[in-house]
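Researcher: Good morning. I'm working through a list of sequences from a screen, and I'd like to move beyond sequence-only analysis. For each chain I'm collecting a predicted structure so we can compare shapes side by side. This is the next one on the list. No need for commentary yet; just the structure.
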Amino acid sequence: MKKLLTATALTLTLAACGGGGSGGGAPSGASSKPGTSSGGTAASTPSKPGTSGGGVTIGGSDPNKMKYITSHDGIIEYKPRPTASQLKKVEQSNTITSQDLTLSALQKNNTIEFNDFINKNIGSYLLPNAYKVINLAYARALGLTGRGQTVAIFGSYDSLKHEVFEGKKITTVSKPSNLYYERIIDTSTILGSVIAGVEGKEMSGLAPGADLQFSGMDFNMSKFAPAFIEAKKKKAVAFVYDSIWLFRDDKTSSRNLYTLAKFKENLSKYSGDFIKTLENTRAYRGSVEVHGPDDTKNFVEAMKDYMAEGIFVAPALAKEDDKGIYSQSLASALPEVLKEFENKTIAVANIIPLVDDKGEIKKALTFPQSQCLEAAAYCLSASPIMKTAYMESETDTSRYRTDFSFFYSLGQVAGATAIMAQAFPTLRNDEIVTRLLFSANNRFGAFKRNGILIKNGVYHEYSKVYGHGFLDIEAALKPIGTIGLPTSTRSEGPRIGLQEVAITASTANNGALQTALKDKDFIAYDALATPFAVKGDALVSEKASTFTTRFAGFSTQASASTQANQFASFNFSNQSQAIPMGDWSLGFAQTGELTKTLGLGMGFATVLESQTSAFSLAQNGLGFAATRQNGKASTGVFAFGDFTDANAHTFGAGASTGYSFDNGAKVAVGATALNETAAYLGMQMNAMQKNSSDKFSAVTALFNTSASMPLDSISLFATAELGVSQAESAGIVSNFDRGVYTGFALGLEAQNLLDTGDKLQLSFSQPMHMEAGSATLRQSGMRNKQGDLTFADIEVDLSAQSRQFDFAADYQMSLSESTSMRLGGVLSLNEGHIEGKTGAAAMGRITHHF
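Model: Good morning. C-alpha cells for this chain:
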C-alpha cells in the first residue's frame, strides 16, 4: 500500500496583490501607473513578483461550469463563485452605492487647504467608492457579515443612540468622565458605524452582523486594563485603538504622539523594561489624570494577555522630529518593542486613491503623517473618505456625513477582521493578519518595494509609505498560493495540488467514484494553511473524449475481404512480412491487429468509444508474436507495449491457442499479463510526475475466449474477456482491493452486399464493466486552531453502477482502387455504466490515397 506522499513541486498564484496609502497631516501627491504586481514564488533570493489572481478552478474551460471553492459562514462547504449577476446585485445595493462619492459632498465638510489639495490632484480621475476599492461586495455575495464576532473599540464615546446601532449587541466597559471632553463629536459612533453599522440605513458597516464593545478612554489610567480584560472575555477578534492619547509624548507636550524612535531612546535608559519606561516617560495631564502605582503594569499585562488570541488594530500616525525625520507612533509599532504584538498587529495608513471610470487606482494621494514607516511590514492602507454616521448631540441619531478621517480607514480594516474570523473560524489571530497582509492590493505605480514577507512558499511586498497596500477582502477570501490536499497532519504542511490529485475515472466503472464521493467534503489548504472545502465528486472527472482521437481510430480499410479471415488466423502475412524461424514465424503489428490475429479480440478500428477489452488500454501500441501452426491447431506467444505517453506506459505479454474446424469455424483462448505504470484499468491521477508515488499502477491478468462461424457470405463472431486486477494506490487513494471486470461482444459480418469487397458489421457488446472492486480514500478534514488536522477513511465501491450495452453498425467499401469509405454508428444504453443514460454517435470517413 502506498501512502499519500508530498507533491514534488508547487506552483503559486497569489489570490490578489496589493494597494496602499497613508493619512493625516499635510498631504503630498503621488501619481501612479498600473503594472506593479505583488506576489510570487518564494526562492532563496526573490527576484521579481509573480502573477496575481483569485480563486482555484476545477472543471472544464467553460467559465460558467467552472467550480470555485471558498468557505462560508463558519461552516466549510462547497460554494460556487458568485456569478456576475449576484455580484452586480450586491454592488447595486445601498450597502455599496451609499459610498459613491461626489466632490461637492466631500468638500463642503473640509477646509479650504484640503479642498485645494484635492482640486489640484484629481484631474480627470474620480473619488473612489471605499467599499469598491476593498471589494466588499464579494464577501456580501457569500453572506459574510461578521456574524458571531465581536470587535472592541478603545477610545471615546458619549452616546451610542445613533440608528446604525439599532438592534445591535453592544457592550460598554466604562464611560469617559465629563472632564475628558473638549469636543462634541462622538468619534466612536463614527468608527463603530464603519465597522459594524447595521444594514437598511443610509450607510452600513463592513461587518453589520458583528457585535461591538466600547471602552471609554479618558485620563483615568485605571480604566485602561479593564478594556482589554473584557475584550479577552468576549473573545473579541480585534481591539481597535482609535486615539492618539493612549501613548503620549515623553512629557514635552501632553498632546503629542509618543513616537517609536523616542520610546526606543528612552527604553535604553531603563534597561529595556517596557513598563518602567512607559511609567516614567509617559506624559500625564496634571490633576485631571488619575493613576495608581500598578495601573501601568496592569494595563500592559492586560494588553499582553488579550494579544494571545486577539488582533490589535491602530492608526498609522507619525510625527516629525526637530531634524525633519518622521517616526511611527508607539501604539502602531508595538511589535517593535513587545513580542506579544508580533504578527498580530495591523497598522492602518490613510490614502486617497483616485480611480478611473473602471475603478482602477491611477493615483495615490499620501500624507507624511500617515506613512507606515517602521510598521510597514504589518501595515495596510484604506481610503479615508467615506459617508458615516455622525453625532454632535444626543438627539442627532439619524445624521450622516461624507468626510475625511483616519477613523474610516481604521474601521474598514477592523471590520475585515470580523469577516475573516467568520469565514475561517479555525484560523488563529496571527493567521488572519497574515491573510489580510498577503492579499493586499499593491498594484499601482506609486508603490515602491521596501521589504518583503515570505511564508510557506509565497511572498508579498510592502512599502514604507503604503505598507502592503490596499485592503482587498475578496482576495483574502480566496486561496493564496497553491491549494491542495494535505499529506500530513499539519495544515501548513506539504500539499498535493487539486489539479494534480484529481482522478480521471476508468470507463470500466465510470460514475462509480463520482457517486460515492458526491456528498463527501475534502478539506484543501492553501499556502497560508487556510481551509477550503471541495466536494469529493469535483475531484473526479470522466475520461476526455476528443473527436480527433476517435476519428483517427476510425480508419478505413481498403480490402474488407482480407480482414474477414484475419480473426484467429495466427498468420501475419497479411499485415507484414513474417520472419520464418523454423516451425515458428515472427510477426509484427499494432496492438489491435495483433490481438485480432491471435483470436483475443476483434480489434479497435471502430466508432465505439468504449472498448470491451483491456487491450484497448494499449490502443496506440505495437507488438510482436511468434506463432506456430500444427495442422488445425495454432499456438502463439506475444508481447506488446504502448509508450506513446512518456509518463504512462502500458505493456504486456501472453500466450494463446486456437483451433480451426473443417467448416471454417475457429475458436481461441488466451491469457495475458498486462502492466499499467500510471493507471488502473485506465483510471489515472492527473499528476504525471516522474516520482512513481504520484500515480497509480496496476497488474491485470486477462483471460480471453473467442469464436467465429462462417455462413456463406455471413460470419458470426463472439468474444469474451475476464480480467482480475491488483492496483497500487497513490494520492488520495490509500488502498485498492482486487478488482474484477468483464467484457464481451457478439456480432456478424456480411460481405459483398452492395459491391464486391464491401463489409457490414453489426454488433451487440458490453464494454469493460467493473464487476467487483473497492478502494479506500483518505479524506482530509478540518484543522483546529493549533493547525492540527485529521483524516478519515472512505470506503468506495468501484463496481459499475449499471451495465452498458452498445448496438453498433459499421459499413465500409472501396469506391475505387485509391478511395475507400467507412460509415458507422452506435447506440449506447446505460452509457458510461450509468443507469438510464443513453448516448449515440455516428461517424463517416472517406480516404483517398494519392
